[in-house]
Specification:
Family: Belongs to the TRAFAC class myosin-kinesin ATPase superfamily. Kinesin family.
Bound molecules: adenosine-5'-triphosphate
Number of helices: 20
CATH superfamily of the largest domain: Kinesin motor domain
Protein name: Kinesin-like protein KIFC3 isoform X1
Shape: elongated
Number of domains: 4
GO molecular function, one term: ATP binding
Helix content: 40-55%
Structural class: alpha+beta
Subcellular location: Cytoplasm, Cytoskeleton
Number of strands: 23
Keywords: ATP-binding, Coiled coil, Cytoplasm, Cytoskeleton, Membrane, Motor protein, Nucleotide-binding, Transmembrane, Transmembrane helix
CATH architecture of the largest domain: 3-Layer(aba) Sandwich
Length: 803
C-alpha cells in the first residue's frame, strides 16, 4: 500500500504534544465510527447503560453480518476500543478533551490542534460506501466526508483517498454515482458497470438479478466473480453459471473434445478454475490422475467417481489375484500332505494285516507245538531206538519254532514302532495344518496392515514433497542470480554494496539492480552452485527444473554452466547432487537418462550421435513436450556424466568446424530425465532437469554481422526475444504464454510452467567497454526478477469479498 504524508506530523511539535494529538485523533475516529454504526444498526437509548450495551451488541452483529460495509477491522486499535462501554468511552473522551484544551493554550500546538479539530468536529459522513478495485487486486472501501472521499488506511487510520490511485483501478460499485471517465467502465441505464474491454470481463444473466458483470480476478488461482449490485460486492459465480460464459464454454469444450470420457461439465469447469483456465493443463492433470482408466473408459459416460472406482477396482483386482495365487499354492501343499497321509494310512492297514497273519500263524504253530509236546511226553514213556530218532527230529522242530516265535516278537515290536511313527506323523500333519491356517490368517492381517502402511507412506511422502514445494514457491519459482566474471580489465563502473544489489555507473548515470543474489568476481564455482541446490531436490521430487545462463559472449556463461576439469560448473555439480539424492532414497528406484541438444539457427541437433540428426522435431501433447528420436543415455555415476558430456562436446566441436560456426552462436541444452518408482507406494514420478547455456545475447548492430553470421544473429535474437516474451507473459499472469514462438522456449515450456522451478544466471563482464551489454543483460535479469518476487508473494486478501 502506498505511503502518504502524515498531516499531523509537524516537526515543530514536541513528542508529547504529538502523542496527545494522535490520541485525540483516534478518539475522534472512534466517535466518527460510532456515528456510522448508529446509522447502520438499531438506535439504543444513550441514557440507559444496559440499553447501550445491547445496542452495541446489535451494532457489532450488524458489522459482522454486513462485512462488505465495514472498513474497521476488529483487530485494529479502534476495533479493540469497541470492547469498552460507551459510557467509559465518553468519560475518557471528556478527560482527553480537557487535556487537549489545556495543550491548546500552548502557542506552538494551537495551530496544529485547531487544524485537526476543524476536520473532526464536523462529522458530516456520507454512508454510501464505494469499493475501489486496484489493478493489483487490492480492494479499498471508501466513504465521503465533507465532500472528500476517505478510506481507512491500516497504518494511518481514516485519510483522504489518494489522487494517484484513481488511474490505477476502478470504482466497482458505482450505483447512485456518476461514473468518472477515468474509471474506464461503461455503464448501463441503472448505473451498474457493464463491460470492461478486457478478456477477463464478461456478463451473465442471473434470474432475479438480471444481467450481471463478471470478472476473472488475477489471484493466485483465477476466480470468476460477478458484480452483485445489491451488496455492492464481487461474489463468486457458481460453476453452473460460469460454464456458460463464452470465455469458459470454449475451454470446457476443448477439454471435453480431448477427453470424451469426461461428461460432467461442472467437474471440468472446477478443474479449469484450479488450472488458471488453461485447458492444456487440465488435460495433463486428468491424464496424470486417471492415466489408463481414462483411456480404458469407452462407455463415455463416466464421471470422476466412476473413474476413481475403476482405478481402485483395477488395483484391488491385482491384490486379489496375488492372494488367489498364494491360496492356490497353499492348497497344493495341503493336497500333497493329504496324499502323504493317505499313503501312511494304507501302510498302516497293510502292516496290521501282516501282523494279524503272523499272529494267526504263531497261534497255529503254538497249537502244533503243544500237540508235539504231548506226543513227546507220551513216547518218552516207551523208550525205543526208533523213538530216540524221532526225538531228535522233534528237538529240531522245536528250535525252528522258537526262531519263528522270536521273529514274530520282533515283528510285533516293529508293528508297534510303526504305529507310533504313524501316530506322530498324523499329529505332525495336524500341527502343520493348524500352522498353515494361522499363517494364512496372519498373511491376511499383514496384507491389510501393509495396505494401510502403504497408504500412510504415500500420503506422507506426498505431504513432504508438497511442503518442500510450498517452501520453494514461497522463495520464488524463478530465482535470478547475477554473476560478474573475473577479469583483469575490471573498470570501476560496477559497485557491489550488498550481496543482492549491483549499481552501474554509466558516466554519472547510476542505476541499481536487485537480484536473489549477486556473485562477485572472486566467488568460486562452489559458491555459485550453492544457490541452485534447493531446486535440484525439487527435481528428484518430480518437479521440472531448469537452470539457464544468459549474457553476452565472453561473460562467463560456459564457465558457469560447464566449468573446467578442475573447477566443474553447475552442470556436473547439479547432476552429481541429483544422483546423490537418488541414491540416498533407498525406497525409490530411480532411472536417470541424459540427452544433449544444440539449437542452431532454429534447428535441433542431437549431440549424442555422430553427424547428429538435424531434423529433430518437437512434439507436444497438452503440456508434455517430447523430441521423438532424441538419444537418451542412462547415467549412474559421475564418470558416466563426464563421459557423456565430453562426447556431446566433441560432436558439437566437429559439427561447428564443419559448418564454420562458433559454439557460442548456438544454445546448448543438457537434459536429465529422472524417473522414479516408489517400491512401497508404487507412486511413479517423472521430471527433467534442463541445463541451458544460451548463445551470446549481444545485439545484431554490435556484431556488424553479414551473411551466415547475420542469419545466426537473427535466430539467436528471435529465440532470446521469445524467451523474454515468455517471461513477460508469466509476469503479467497472462492466459496465453507464447512458448511456441521459438524452439528454445518450446523446449523449455515444461520447465517454465505450472509448478516448475527455474534458476536464471545473468552473466556480466566487469570490462568498461562492455557497459552497454552489461546494462541490457541486467535489465533482462531484473525483469525476470520481478516475476520471481511478484508471483508467490502476491497475497491480496479481501476482507469484504470472502476467499
Ligand atoms: N568467474 C570466472 N573466473 C575465471 N575465469 C572466467 C570466469 N568467467 C569466465 N572466465 C573465463 O572467461 C573466458 C570466457 O568465458 P566463457 O567462455 O564462459 O564465456 P561465455 O559467456 O560462455 O562466452 P560464449 O557466449 O562465447 O560461449 C573463458 O576463458 C573462461 O575461462
Amino acid at each position: 500500500m502506498a505511503k502518504f504524508d502524515n498531516n499531523c506530523g509537524d516537526e515543530s511539535v514536541n513528542d508529547l504534544t504529538f502523542l496527545m494529538i494522535l490520541l485525540v485523533f483516534f478518539v475522534r475516529v472512534y466517535i466518527l465510527y460510532q456515528a456510522v454504526l448508529r446509522q447502520m444498526g438499531s438506535g439504543a437509548s444513550k441514557s440507559d447503560p444496559a440499553e447501550r450495551h445491547k445496542a452495541r451488541d446489535n451494532e457489532e452483529k450488524a458489522i459482522t453480518q454486513n462485512g462488505s460495509a465495514s472498513t474497521l477491522p476488529a483487530n485494529s486499535s479502534i476495533g479493540k476500543q469497541m470492547g469498552q462501554s460507551n459510557l467509559e468511552d465518553e468519560e475518557i473522551a471528556e478527560d482527553i478533551e480537557q487535556m487537549v484544551q489545556h495543550f491548546n493554550k500552548s502557542p506552538e500546538t494551537t495551530e496544529v490542534v485547531t487544524g485537526m479539530q476543524s476536520t473532526l468536529d464536523t462529522e458530516d459522513v456520507s454512508l454510501t460506501f464505494e469499493s475501489f478495485l486496484h489493478r493489483n487486486g487490492t480492494l479499498y472501501t471508501c466513504f465521503t466526508q465533507n465532500g472528500t472521499r476517505m478510506y481507512f488506511d491500516d497504518e494511518k487510520g481514516i485519510v483522504p483517498f489518494p489522487q494517484e490511485l484513481y488511474s490505477e483501478g476502478n470504482f466497482i460499485n458505482t450505483q447512485n454515482q456518476t461514473p468518472k471517465k477515468s474509471d474506464g467502465i461503461k455503464q448501463d441505464i441503472n448505473g451498474v458497470p457493464s463491460y470492461l474491454e478486457n478478456e477477463r470481463t464478461s456478463s451473465f444473466y442471473i434470474p432475479g438479478k438480471g444481467m450481471v458483470m463478471t470478472y476473472i480476478f488475477e489471484e493466485r488461482t483465477n476466480v470468476c466473480r460477478y458484480f452483485d449490485s445489491e451488496s455492492g460486492a464481487w461474489l463468486i459465480l457458481p460453476l453452473l453459471w460460469e460454464m456458460n460464459l463464452d470465455f469458459t464454454t470454449s475451454r470446457v469444450q476443448q477439454v471435453k473434445e480431448a477427453l470424451p470420457a469426461l461428461t460432467d461439465y461442472r467437474e471440468i469447469m472446477a478443474a479449469l478454475r484450479l488450472c488458471n483456465y488453461d485447458p492444456d493443463e487440465v488435460i495433463s492433470v486428468f491424464y496424470a490422475i486417471f492415466g489408463d482408466s481414462l483411456e480404458n473408459s469407452t462407455s463415455g459416460n463416466q464421471n470422476f467417481e466412476q473413474m476413481f472406482l475403476h482405478r481402485d477396482i483395477q488395483e484391488n483386482k491385482k491384490i486379489i489375484d496375488n492372494l488367489n495365487e498364494k491360496l492356490q499354492n497353499r492348497e497344493r501343499e495341503l493336497v500333497n500332505l493329504r496324499l502323504k497321509c493317505q499313503y501312511l494310512e494304507e501302510e498302516k492297514v497293510n502292516l496290521n494285516h501282516r501282523t494279524e497273519n503272523l499272529n494267526k500263524k504263531i497261534t497255529e504253530l503254538q497249537a502244533e507245538h503243544e500237540v508235539h509236546l504231548q506226543e513227546a511226553v507220551r513216547t518218552e514213556k516207551s523208550d525205543t531206538p526208533f523213538q530216540s530218532k524221532e526225538k531228535t527230529v522233534l528237538t529240531l522242530k522245536k528250535e525252528s519254532l522258537l526262531n519263528i516265535l522270536q521273529e514274530s516278537r520282533e515283528l510285533n515290536v516293529c508293528n508297534k514302532q510303526l504305529r507310533a511313527v504313524t501316530k506322530n506323523a498324523l499329529s505332525e500333519i495336524g500341527l502343520h495344518l493348524k500352522h498353515l491356517q494361522n499363517t494364512t490368517e496372519n498373511m491376511d492381517r499383514s496384507n491389510k496392515e501393509m495396505e494401510e502402511i502403504r497408504a500412510l507412506y504415500q500420503r506422507e511422502s506426498l505431504e513432504r514433497k508438497m511442503l518442500y514445494n510450498q517452501l520453494q514457491e514461497l522463495r520464488g519459482n524463478i530465482r535470478v542470480f547475477c554473476r560478474c566474471r573475473r577479469d583483469d580489465k575490471k573498470g570501476d563502473h560496477l559497485e557491489f554494496f550488498t550481496n543482492e544489489d549491483i549499481l552501474v555507473n554509466n558516466n554519472g548515470n547510476k542505476k541499481k539492480f536487485r537480484f536473489d543474489q549477486v556473485f562477485l568476481p572472486q566467488c568460486s564455482q562452489e559458491d555459485v552452485f550453492e544457490g541452485t541446490l534447493p531446486i535440484i531436490k525439487s527435481c528428484v521430487d518430480g518437479y521440472n527444473v531448469c537452470i539457464l545462463a544468459y549474457g553476452q559472449t565472453g561473460s562467463g556463461k560456459t564457465y558457469t554452466m560447464m566449468g573446467t576439469e578442475q573447477k566443474p560448473g553447475v552442470n556436473i555439480r547439479s547432476i552429481r547432487e541429483l544422483l546423490r539424492i537418488c541414491q540416498e532414497r533407498e525406497k525409490i528406484r530411480y532411472t536417470t537418462k541424459i540427452s544433449m541438444l544444440e539449437i542452431y539457427n532454429e534447428t535441433l541437433r542431437d549431440l549424442l550421435v555422430q553427424n547428429g540428426n538435424s531434423q529433430l522435431e518437437i512434439r507436444s501433447q497438452g503440456k508434455v513436450v517430447t523430441v521423438p528420436g532424441m538419444t537418451e543415455i542412462e547415467v549412474l555415476t559421475e564418470e558416466d556424466i563426464k563421459k557423456t558430456m565430453s562426447l556431446g562436446e566433441k560432436h558439437r566441436t566437429v559439427a561447428s568446424t564443419k559448418m564454420n560456426t562458433e559454439s557460442s552462436r548456438s544454445h546448448l541444452m543438457v537434459i536429465l530425465h529422472v524417473h522414479g518408482v516408489d517400491s512401497i507406494s508404487g507412486v511413479v514420478s517423472t521430471a527433467a532437469l534442463t541445463l541451458c547455456d544460451l548463445a551470446g545475447s549481444e545485439r545484431i548492430s554490435k556484431t556488424e554481422a553479414t551473411g551466415q553470421r547475420l542469419m545466426e544473429a537473427a535466430a539467436i535474437n528471435k529465440s532470446l526475444t521469445a524467451l523474454g516474451q515468455v517471461f513477460t507473459a508469466l509476469k503479467n499472469n497472462s492466459l496465453h504464454v507464447p512458448y511456441r514462438n521459438s524452439k528454445l522456449t518450446h523446449l523449455l515450456q515444461p520447465s517454465l510452467s505450472g509448478h516448475a522451478k527455474a534458476c536464471v544466471f545473468v552473466n556480466i563482464s566487469p570490462d568498461m567497454k562492455n557497459i552497454g551489454e552489461t546494462i541490457s543483460t541486467l535489465q533482462f535479469g531484473s525483469s525476470i526478477q520481478q516475476i520471481a518476487l511478484g508471483k508467490p508473494m502476491q497475497q491480496t486478501t479481501n476482507v469484504n469479498h470472502g476467499p
